[in-house]
Amino acid sequence: MQFPKIWLLRHGQTEWNAERRIQGQLESPLTPQGVEQARRQATLMAPVMAQKPACYASPLGRAQQTADIALGGAPFVTDPRLAEAYAGAFQGMSLAEVAAEYPQIHRANPRNLDLFCEAPGGEGYGRFHARILDFMQSLAGPSVVVAHGLLGQVMRGIVCGLTRDRMAALPNGQGCVYVLENGAETVLE
Fold it and tell me: Radius of gyration of the chain from Cα atoms?
């Protein structure tokens, strides 16, 4: 599949990221480090933003807070398809709490993408993948996307033609920009 060029930014570190707590679609503000990561992204994005690309962000606060900083005040459209995976019963729990309360699920899913998608009452991988692909297929030209770690793994995997297992193994950097173009990924740091 071919898609327009995408500059993908994960939101900066949040309080819950620092606590190793599962956010899913719950809210947690950026830490001072997260604000600094968004500022680093703003420096990386300045030449891109001069081209006035279409800009999109998750409706969740941490992504919008990052977009406000990283996009240098440029307007962006929020899209519900860019929200993080809904992690059902795991939302708000620390990874240690999930391991203690759901040991079999935790043991069988050592990577966060798989773990969150197996959460009781959660969105599941199939629906998560479908809404991300639907968003990507709606893009009309080069676009900036400010979203989340797991969403980013799937979006990057779709562009690069990766299996689910390889998507789940991708790094989830904060403070960088993933450039997705022609079936490949480049990381700006």
Answer: 16
Altogether, the residues listed in the chain come to a count of: 189
Burial annotation 64-97 (CB, 10 A radius, 16+ → b, else e): ebbbbbbbeeeebeebebbbbbbbbbbbebeeee
- According to the model, what pLDDT value does residue 175 have? 97
Distance CA 96, CA 137 (A): 37
Q: Identify the active-site residue in 84, 118, 123, 129.
A: 84
Pairing between strand 77-78 and 54-57?
A: parallel
pLDDT for 1 beyond 90: no
11 carries an active-site annotation: yes
Say if residue 118's pLDDT is above 90. yes
Q: Is 84 among the residues known to form the active site?
A: yes
Give whole-number Cα distances, 188 to 1, 10, 26, 176, 184, in Å: 23, 12, 28, 6, 13
Whether 49 has a pLDDT exceeding 90, the answer reads yes
Determine the Cα–Cα distance for residues 54 and 112; give it in Å rounded to an integer: 30
Local structure of 169: helix, strand or coil: coil
pLDDT digits (tens, 9 = 90+) for 154-181: 999 999 999 999 999 999 999 999 999 9
**For the whole model, what pTM was predicted?**
0.97
